[in-house]
Amino acid sequence: xxxxxxxxxxxxxxxxxxxxxxxxxxAGLYSERAGIFDIGLEGKMLAAAFFSAAIAAMTGSVWxxxxxxxxxxxxxxxxxxxxxxxxRGNQLISGVAINFLAAGMTVLVAQAWFKQGxxxxxxxxxxxxxxxNLPFAEAMQDVPIIGPLYFELISGHSILVYMAFAAVPxxxxxxxxxxxxxxxxxxxxxxxxxxxxxxxxxxxxFAAVGICxxxxxxxxxxxxxxLQAGFVKDMAAGRGFIALAALIFAKxxxxxxxxxxxLFGLFGALxxxxxxxxxxxxxxxxxxxxxxxxxxxTVIILAGFVGKxxxxxAGGEPYVKER
Amino acid sequence: xDVMPKWAEVxxxxxxxxxxxxxxSALVILAIGEDPVAAVKLMITGALGSSYGWGYTxxxxxxxMFTGLAVAIAFHARLFNIGGEGQAALGGxxxxxxxxxxxxxxxSVALVGAAIAAGLFGAAWATIPAWLQAKRGSHIxxxxxxxxxxxxxxxxxxxxxxxxxxxxMDPASARFPETVQLPTLHDMLxxxxxxFSKSAPANVSLLVAIAACVFLWFLIWRTxxxxxxxxxxxxxxxxxxxxxxxxxxxxVTMMISGALAGMMAINNVMGEAERxxxxxxxxxxxxxxxxxxxxxxxxxxxxxxxxxxGFLYQGGAELALWTAIPxxxxxxxxxxxxxxxxxxxxxxxxxxxxxxxxxxxxGA
Lengths: 323, 364
Prior knowledge:
The complex is a heterodimer. By secondary structure, chain A is mostly helical. Chain A is built from 14 helices and no strands. In chain A, helix 1 (about 1-35) crosses helix 12, helix 3 runs antiparallel to helix 10 and helix 7 (about 160-175) crosses helix 8. The relative contact order of chain A is 0.20. Chain B is mainly α. Chain B has 16 helices and no strands. In chain B, helix 2 (about 35-50) packs across helix 3 (about 50-75), helix 4 crosses helix 11 (about 245-265) and helix 5 runs antiparallel to helix 11. Chain B has helices at about 5-30, 35-50, 50-75, 85-100, 105-135, 140-165, 185-190, 205-220, 225-235, 235-240, 245-265, 265-275, 285-295, 300-320, 330-345, 345-364. The longest helix of chain B is centred in the middle third of the chain and has 30 residues, at about 105-135. Chain B is about 75% helix and about 0% strand. The chains are: A mainly alpha, B mainly alpha. Chains A and B meet through helix 3, helix 4, helix 11 and helix 14 of A and helix 5, helix 6, helix 13, helix 15 and helix 16 of B.
């Protein structure tokens, strides 16, 4: 029973750690499926994390904070869109710029507003997303096996976690069952065909980049208002890049994005519980190895040794209507 | 036929981008309630007003020359090496191993040995992404990003578990022996009668970096390999048709690029810290991107841009010391430079091209 509880706790923190990865991964999915590479996921999350925490601290309402976070992320999305769609600039360079812009601006503004060395005040009460207890969670707690599973793992997360998991089927439906989704995928494979059909390539790509901004905004807000209580400098801590790795790992598919981010979340959870691994496989695993594992696995997948990851064909290429 | 004259392409476009980045930076300083004019004055006196300031400016510039050249050579082959950070970290490991485990008789021999070790380690770290790009078609940007993180984990492991001296809590290697200490600008300039600050970290690596700039210029524009790299960069299919093997070009370019990034370690690890510490690169690998973009991938441009960024770095440190403006202002400026000179290049270029076309029509 003890072992079972440990496992449940481990999976519980897996879900917590996977949520921001999942949201950012789906964000990248929309953008890259439409042919816009986005290595600025990290920056957008960071900006959203700061502005949602800052505005939540000022207004005392986490929902206003969430809106501010999404708005901040959307501003960066707009920059990325203008640079890579309107002015046909290099999408990768634009992404790099956005990451640095967010890394610098968040600390600069945090220092100017709060003067606490680049952090926001700690969030309390309504300024944070509180865990939601699902119905009967307390009552079922003592039921063997299912009780702890329901109480610890399924119940007791913030609303953003449930939103992230709901976004997976929604994304699948939107991309593969609607006209908008078909066009969005087409614009990432063969924009000229979409253009010939009389649909705006620029409009579709901006829509995709916009959805990407909203999802990154929620991911960032989750970091600072649900996972933790406030913003600290560099709190995205490479999650945007792990999400990018997960996206490649998932080969740009929504359900696989869920599996990939859960796997990478599990690595993160295991990193904090070295004792669990030791008792499970009977030997010590270096924490550094676990933190490098998502990246190593992504490189292996990219190399095509275990199934080939083929990105959308028009990804990274600005669309030029006339030659 | 080019629409713009050469001087506009080389000087006017980057200059306008730089002015735009400066204006927005000034607005940012205003927005956080500080005085931009006073800030610039403070940055200039702090970074260029004394030989101490110059010593730091040139120390940072040395780092950025290496990483800037690394990004620039890759750009010529239309490869985006975003992994300078990891390659420089591995270069640091190479320098530390060379300095700690080989008994060098004199610093000059040690410098050559350490530079070779740094270059080899950096090149090795770039080889894997290069091979994956050339043979398996994996996107080099993604693999080099992944390799940055893998390098960080690797160095963390090595420093905490292997190289840390017994009894030390600090995740850092032991101090290098005194024989491998590089002469600073103070030591070099004192015999000629120039007083240079003793405490500034600029050292003989600066000369190596300048030599690397010259070497790279020669390589790109005066050798067959350089021609192949440039041809490959402007048109892969044309280069292939002319019988230039893409595999070789990608591998060699990335190895040179990685070696240059790795060689940064002779400045920061051997010249300044004199031991290997955690996160010794401090983002210099990424600044190389801004430096290469601003320098238009030309070694001389990289040289100038590296000094400018060295100035920004030292000036920014002074700002953080004397005003309420945090050091992160440099990161914002760096982002704006990358944005305007890199991603929004067409925004500056398109109207300029229109102006030059109109001028030419009038002249004809």
